[in-house]
Structure formats: C-alpha cells, structure tokens
From TrEMBL:
Domain RNA polymerase sigma factor 54 DNA-binding: 268-425
Entry-linked PROSITE patterns: SIGMA54_3
Protein name: RNA polymerase sigma-54 factor
Organism whose genome encodes this protein: Oceanobacillus profundus
Gene name per UniProt: rpoN
Single GO term (MF): DNA binding
Length: 430
C-alpha cells in the first residue's frame, strides 16, 4: 500500500512538473523559447539539434509601410518625428511648413541646429527672415532648448520658458561662465545688481538646464521583435501562417536508437532523458496550439480592423476570449504575453487587439478608435479657434454617435499628450 502511495505521489509530482513547464513555455516569446530549449539541450545528450532557422512558411513580404521580419520595434518616434508632430500645436503660414521641417531635419541628435541662417535660406530658396522665423517656431517646441545654436542659447531658451530669465544672465553666460561654475554669489550679485539669494537661485536654475535637450526625446534602446505568425489576405480571405521559429523542431541524437537495448548500462538514464524531450515537445505543441486558438479568435473578433484599419478596432477583453475558447483567463494572458503578429498594418503585439471600450447607442467603441478620431479632429481644427474638450465631445456624438463624458475626452487627450485648447491657442500665438 505504501509502495503504491509513493508511486502515485511520484506520478503526481511528474505531472505537476510537466504542467509547470507547459505554463512557463506558454508565456515565453519565440526568442526566450529558443534559449530555453538550448539550455535543456546542454544537459540532454539525446538532443542533437534545435532547428529554428530564420525562415518562414508561406512567406508574404511586408509592404513598405510595415516592419519586416526581425526589424526593430519602432513604436517610439524619432526626435525628428516627435518635433514635427508638435507643429499642429503652433500657428504659422502653411507656406513656411517645408522651411520649418527642413530646420528640424537640420538638428543634430542633441537638438542643436547645425547650419546657419544663410545656408538654411539658400537651401530652401527663401529669405533669411523666413529662416529666422522658422527657427523661432522650432525653438518654441518641447523640450525647451531645442533648436539652440550653442550651449549658451540652449540654457537661455530653457530659462525663458521656466520664467527664470534675468537680462544680465545672457552676459553671464557669454563672459562669466567661471563665476557660474564656482558659484560665486558675490560677483554674480554685483554683475546683476541682485541679492545673493536671487543669484543662488539663478545658478541652481542654470544647473538644472539640460545641455542636450534632444536626448530627452531619444527613444529607449530598441527591442528586436520576432512575430509568431503572419496574418495576410489571400483570394479575399484572411489567413494565418506561423513562422517556423514559433515551434522549434528538436532532432534526436542517434544514441536514441540504443534505448531499445535492455543490456545498455545507460538505459534508465537515457529513458529519463527521452521522457524529458517528450514533455518538452508536448509543452511546445501546447504553446503553439494555444497561441493559434487565440490569434484565430482575435482575427474573428477584430475582422473590421483587418479590413478597414485602426479606426475600426473593436473593444475586446481577455475574459471574452477566455469564455469563447473555454480556457482560463490566465491561460489567455500568458498566450498573448510578448507575442507579436505581422499584419498589413505592421508588426503588432497581441495585446494591441485587447481594447477597452466606451458604451454608446451603437454598442461599444474601443478607446483606441476614439483617440484616433480625436487626433484627427485636433489635427484639422481651426488653428485660431481650437476645439475645447466639450466641442470634441459634441463632435464625437454628432458625427460618430459616440457618447463620452467630457472628463473622458480630457483623459484621452492627456494620454495622447495633446495640450488643452487654451494651451494650443497660446502656443500658436507665440
């Protein structure tokens, strides 16, 4: 009886161990899965090769607008793109937009202008006055200090925006940097005709200025992403094709053949390693099958997105997918973690397709879709009379039958990093 109990406990332990392995492997990205298998292969002599060639089944080339396999996840915009995206917040003659954009493209990675006004004007076939005007507009963008031509100007721009500028500071930066470096309050007080306390505040303000403002817009270190599968349209139907690296193939060592020899002294050891491989293959298969179920369900629920683009993204939750597939919500969460698919809209994380929604008379609209509509409204608004949050709320209702509260509009606008209508009007006046 005791022996039977021990056997059952041993089997239960092995089953639990196998389950834990399947759960862990399910949440691995393709890269992590490959590394995990390679680590096991180091300890298992039966594994001769792990085949995960960077090749793919039924390859469909990406369009110029999408990422290619193995490309960088560039969801974060470059310095230049981020600055250009701010242009809709300021007022300027449309005819000068190419001149302003040329100036932005002439900044170095630290945010400094690398050409003089004469060269700028010549290359844009315009006047020096127009180039100077364009520079003024660039220097009004965020972060403060962008578009400076030297360190002194960079600091002055930041002090002015923070309302910490004193007229004598310009002379201080031009001719008395050593006084700032040495924090000589007495000398600075005398030059500026101000109290020592005020001089100390100015020195601290200068020290807080960023010498390379362009670095503040620098995207984080890029991650190379490898999609699990490709979603593409063929003969009018949306199809799903998995890349080979999503399910690595394990080739066994010829030693495996000797397992049938009962006299072989290493039989028990090799049989144990064989079971290890079988469990690993089952876990890899479970991972692949679960991810496929989830992606196919996403394709079904987000059909309008694939057909028409981002404005048609639908609200969708982990719970909905779990209930329709008859799986636990934690299983779905692991299945989408760190997983990407290649689509005609680019390489997208599976989490992108999970969208919270806002209920309205036509059902539920995904918050992402509402944000996209808001961006378009603000992009094309009257520059002299920007849309208030209340006006955006009314337009969403009148034009798209989407009913949201004003505070929701404000929250989405903040998430989009778009200033209020008052701030947008002020920026365009400056």
């Amino acid at each position: 009886m005791k022996q039977k109990l021990n056997l059952n406990q041993s089997l239960q332990w092995k089953m639990n161990q196998s389950l834990v392995q399947s759960i862990n492997i399910l949440q691995f990205s393709s890269g992590e899965l490959l590394e995990y298998i390679k680590e096991i292969a180091k300890e298992n002599p039966l594994i001769e090769e792990v085949n995960s060639d960077m090749d793919w089944v039924q390859y469909r080339p990406a369009s110029p607008e999408t990422f290619s396999i193995g490309e960088i996840n560039t969801a974060e915009m470059s310095l230049y793109d981020q600055l250009k995206s701010q242009l809709f917040t300021i007022s300027y003659p449309e005819s000068l937009k190419p001149i302003i954009e040329f100036g932005i493209d002439s900044l170095n990675e630290d945010g400094y202008l690398e050409i003089d006004l004469r060269e700028w004007a010549d290359k844009c076939d315009t006047t020096i006055e127009n180039a100077a005007y364009a520079l003024e507009k660039i220097q009004s963008l965020e972060p403060a200090g962008i578009g400076a031509r030297n360190l002194q100007e960079c600091i002055l721009l930041q002090l002015k925006q923070a309302n910490n500028f004193e007229p004598f500071v310009e002379e201080l930066l031009e001719n008395h940097l050593e006084l700032i470096a040495n924090a000589d309050l007495e000398a600075i007080s005398e030059i500026g005709g101000i109290a020592a306390e005020r001089a100390g505040f100015i020195i601290e303000s200068i020290k807080l200025c960023h010498p390379k403002p362009g670095k503040l817009l620098e995207p984080p270190e890029p991650d190379y992403i490898i999609p699990e599968a490709s979603i593409f349209k063929e003969n009018g139907e949306w199809k799903l094709s998995f890349y080979r690296w999503s399910t690595p193939k394990i080739t066994l060592n010829p030693t495996y053949q000797r397992l049938n020899d009962p006299m072989h002294e290493a039989t028990d050891y090799l049989r144990e390693k064989q079971k290890e491989i079988e469990q690993l293959q089952q876990a890899i298969g479970y991972r692949g099958n679960t991810i496929e179920l989830v992606i196919r369900k996403i394709m079904e629920k987000q059909y309008l997105f694939f057909e028409h683009g981002t404005y048609m993204i639908q609200s969708l939750t982990l719970r909905e997918i779990a209930e329709e597939l008859g799986l636990h919500i934690s299983t779905i969460s692991r299945a989408i973690s760190q997983k990407y698919v290649q689509t005609i809209h680019g390489v997208l994380p599976l989490k992108f397709f999970l969208q919270r929604g806002v209920k309205n008379e036509n059902g539920t609209t995904a918050s992402f879709a509402i944000k996209q509509l808001m961006k378009e409204m603000i992009l094309h608004e009257d520059k002299q009379s920007p849309l208030s949050d209340e006006a955006i709320k009314r337009k969403l209702m009148n034009e798209f039958q989407i009913e949201v509260a004003r505070r929701t509009v404000m929250k989405y606008r903040d998430q989009l990093r778009i200033p209020s209508s008052i701030k947008r009007r002020e920026n365009r006046r400056n």
